[in-house]
Design a protein that fits this description.
Blueprint: H1 3-6, E1 8-12, H2 22-27, E2 35-39, E3 45-53, H3 58-70, E4 78-79, E5 82-85, E6 96-105, H4 109-122, E7 137-143, H5 163-172, H6 185-195, E8 202-204
Antiparallel strand pairs: 1-2, 3-6, 3-7, 4-6, 5-6, 5-8
Helix pairs in contact: 5-6
């Protein structure tokens, strides 16, 4: 079944039952003034996944991660540029390649988390302890507008504190509303940059050592 079969937009004069998150409305916006809502996608949620790697070949590892994610996408694929950023965690690590992707997903949060963790193992990630170097990292950021504690915790608790997540997230979904704070991604990024200096970001377009 194609994404077009999963998803359609309807124009309505009153928007009482319209989807709350304006990011979705923008995705199906038409060239008229009619309001838009999404119908027929009760089983789909837009998810956001952060990818990271600081062990060579970093560029290829992110490509492999995207390939694993594309296999469970029901359409609506978005991906940010790839950035190189300084490491966070124990000293002695190399810089990371970071990226955020988003797509429609038909399944439950725990099933998606299990797929992400399994994909990390398939792609060669080895246990080194918290925040240490890694072959590949696949972190679930948002699962629609869900708020959950436990496993998984949604939204990811570190989103408001991580420039290397918020900058690529802002590239693809600046108007996405964080369901915990009820502010947009671009506002979260602005708030963070008011409290700390911007870290170096270098756009990556090919494999590097």
């Amino acid at each position: 079944m194609t994404f077009a079969q999963y998803f359609f937009c309807k124009k309505i004069k009153s928007d009482k039952n319209a989807i709350k998150n304006t990011f979705f409305a923008q995705e199906c916006q038409k060239n008229d003034t009619a309001k838009i809502y999404i119908g027929g996608v009760d089983s789909l949620n837009r998810v956001f996944i952060a990818l990271g790697s600081n062990l060579a070949p970093r560029y290829s590892r992110l490509a492999e991660g995207r390939d694993m994610l594309s296999r469970i996408s029901s359409g609506g694929w978005l991906e940010s540029p790839i950035y190189e950023t300084p490491p966070v965690g124990p000293e002695g690590q190399g810089p990371y390649f970071n990226q955020v992707v988003s797509f429609w997903y038909d399944g439950e949060p725990k099933r998606l988390l299990n797929y992400l963790k399994g994909s990390e193992l398939v792609l060669g990630r080895k246990p080194r302890g918290h925040w240490n170097s890694r072959e590949i990292d696949l972190d679930l950021l948002y699962f629609g507008n869900k708020v959950m504690a436990g496993r998984p915790t949604i939204p990811h608790v570190e989103i408001p504190n991580r420039q290397f997540v918020l900058v690529p997230l802002n590239d693809i979904a600046p108007d996405w509303v964080d369901p915990l704070s009820n502010v947009t991604v671009k506002e979260l990024l602005s708030q963070l940059l008011e409290n700390e200096s911007r870290i170096p970001f270098r756009t990556i377009t090919a494999e590097e050592p």
